Amino acid sequence: MIDRTQSHIDAAQADGDFLALLEESFAVEQPVRGDIVMGVIQSIDSMGMLVDLGMKRDGVVPRNDLERLGDDVQFSVGDRIPVMIVRAEDEDGNLIVSVAQAKQNEDWLRAEELMNSEEVWEGVVADANRGGLIVPFGNLRGFVPASHVSNLPRGLSEEERTQYLQGMVGQPITVKVIEVNRRRRRLVLSQREAQREVRDAHKNELLSELVEGEIRRGVVSGLRDFGAFVDLGGADGLIHISELAWHRVKHPREVLKVGQEVEVYVLRLDQEGRRIGLSLKRLQPNPWTQVDELYHVGQIVEGVVSRVTQFGAFVSMEPGIEALLHASQIADPAPENPADLLHEGQVIQARIISIEPHRQRLGLSLRDLNNPASADEDGEIEAGQTAPDTLESDGVEPEAEEETSAEIAE
Question: Which of 6, 106, 165, 232 is the right S-S partner for 128, CB 3.0 to 4.6 Å?
Fold first, then answer.
């Protein structure tokens, strides 16, 4: 009777120990695939590594997982490292973990941080194909599409584009993370966006340093119909076409070429709009200050017709001024269409009938070429009606046009 009672007590104690162990096992959260856990390296051999994870089983890191990290990554017994659970149990009952995938996870997190913060990052081009560039990002492979490679020439054949991209292998590259997709293992980078970020930073710095009226050296970076862009050291300023020269310029290519080094006058700074207005002509003598010394009313001069309009023609004269030949001064009666009598590039002789240096105006006449007395008597009256205010001279700045062009440039 006593023996049977004792056996019941022993059985109850055994059941209690089992329940305690079962509760303890449930209290410890079981790792699942994809979990990142910290462990301490217990041993390293030709088969891989054994890592103490603080669980009932140690984690096994296969040798091929270590080889994925390359020779640059070295481990020692006792190191504390993060690992990712790959398989909770293999056919031999081992808990398989990965150091490489844990490091990749850190890289994914870092990539997401860079994308969210919009910071730039510098790497080295490892490979290239027709689609773009391969740039290692830690243990990941980032991809820069060809459309996001700065300064890639347009109009290249597929073979030429591949050769150009191959020439960038081994070179450092500054990029911005624009897409992170772990599920599809896509890490997309952009050199173009990074350069824009860098240039914006340079522009802010330049705007804080520049002073209106100072002279700076720069390099012509681009030509447009409305003006020329000049790189002042990481940021561009705009020379509006009206500020390229005192004479009329049809296109900036008449005065400048891309890559040319020039001195420019800082004409206007727009801190709010982040625009830098530059000028070339402000560094050149104003030809209108010499007009009184070179010309007088009644004088016969030679010039070149620079453009013909419905109300008359503009004539280019030395030293870089434009005079107005109104339709009423071309012939008597005035032609309905001045283009019937004059054309661009035509060399003509005309008589000066009015000079207004302060308004940058000089009036000419063909009608009175052989009648100086008539020009002296009524020239001023005729000239007063000929030059519309909207087309006075290149010396008057077209503010509205400049603002529009600057906005396009941004």
Answer: 165
Enter the tokens of residue 154: 């347009």
Is residue 170 over pLDDT 60?
yes
pLDDT digits (tens, 9 = 90+) for 7-48: 554 554 555 555 555 455 444 456 777 777 888 999 988 888
CATH number at residue 262: 2.40.50.140
Q: How many domains does the chain have?
A: 4
> Is pLDDT at 134 greater than 70 in this prediction?
yes
295 and 338 part of one domain: yes
Whether residue 205 lies inside any domain: the answer is no
Tell me if 397 is assigned to some domain: no
Tell me what the mean pLDDT of segment 71-94 comes to: 82
Separation of alpha carbons 156 and 4, rounded Å:
95
For residue 190, what are its two tokens? Answer: 């952009």
- 172 and 258 belong to one structural domain: no
Same domain, 40 and 63: yes
The domain of 330 spans 287-387
